[in-house]
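This section describes the prediction task in plain terms. A model, or a person checking by hand, is given the sequence of a single protein chain and must write out its three-dimensional structure as a string of tokens. No templates, partner chains or ligands are provided. The sample shown here is typical of the held-out split.
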Amino acid sequence: MNSLSNPVGILAVQGDFEMHGGMLDRIGAPWKLVKHPQDLGEVSALIMPGGETTTMLKFFHAEGLGPAVKQFAAEGKPIFGTCAGAILLAKEVLNPPQDRLGLLDITIERNAYGRQVDSSVRRGDCRELSDRPVEMVFIRAPIIRRVGEGVRVLGRCDGLPVLVEQGNILAATFHPELTEDETIHRFFYKKMSH
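The expected answer:
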């Protein structure tokens, strides 16, 4: 069991980490920005936000964050990746292939919905989490092309898996932090107490 006395960490390398902080404020969850490997010792869970994966990977290599996040996951602590965060968590990345942490048995294709101008707000089904459709913001979003055996699909949009879970790892191809809907963050915060 994870200690709820420690805050949720939000990876503050690059991307929309402040929006995740705002969402956690709304649900009453304490949080702390994570920039260095030693910061992970002060948090019970980690959110890896959207952004630019190549920039994030450069920072990961420079700071030694990759091995630290893998160790964090190995200790059973919850990790939630959104958009670029989901790409970094994946076992296989396409378009083009790139470095990743390999913590989640999925194949994900980068920028599969198109360019920035093709961004959209849609509604999807997360039936295990909500009895109503969940608002989903897709910005240069990836598409999950393969889901491994141990991976549960928790959310779908237009027939595609968009929210998946494997053990302590949760990943969304959309940006729940850019909506008014607290469903996904509440679900992740609950994972901390299991």
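For orientation: The chain has one domain: 8-191.
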